[in-house]
Write the structure tokens for this entry.
Amino acid sequence: MKRRSCIGLLVGLSVLGFAPVARAQAFAEGPQASAWFERAGRLAGFTTGQGEGAPAAVIFFDARCPHCTRLWSDARRMDGSIRLRWVPVVLLSPASARQAAALLRAGDPSAAMDAHAQSLAAGGEGIAAEEPDDEETRALKENTASLRAMEVASVPAILHRDRSGRIGLTVGAMPASRLARLVSEN
């Protein structure tokens, strides 16, 4: 199955658009789905969770998205046993690019994301940041283009792999406990 067909299968079953809850999930199997998951895991971003292995999920997020920051905060309250790759994209506003760049350049991106989420939750603007440099701009464009190549137009968009190796795509907000169940099924 060609990558485009595999991604089309995933996306064709997904509900696109901003959603208060995750509305759709699709699965694909085979080398093309695995290759796409591996590629997404190498995009610019940062990883949370214990261990050194591959992440169980790759989460595409926009720093200005309230559903994304809620998922972040919820995931941080979990025990950290699930490795998650957080990939910033630019979808919502010019501030998204500045804040995503600040996360990419942070010495401790998890702490920076914690501060960002806390600021937004308190009614603030999130982390302050300068314009992205050329390398950060290139990385953010690649991240966003990868999301759009999956024909996904909203965030959070979560590529996840369960224990049996099935690759899933879920678009929309969800509690981190639901994400934990997705990666531990089978």
Remarks:
- The chain has seven helices and six strands.
- Residues 1-24 have pLDDT under 50 and may be disordered.
- The beta strands are 24-28, 46-48, 57-61, 84-88, 157-161, 167-171.
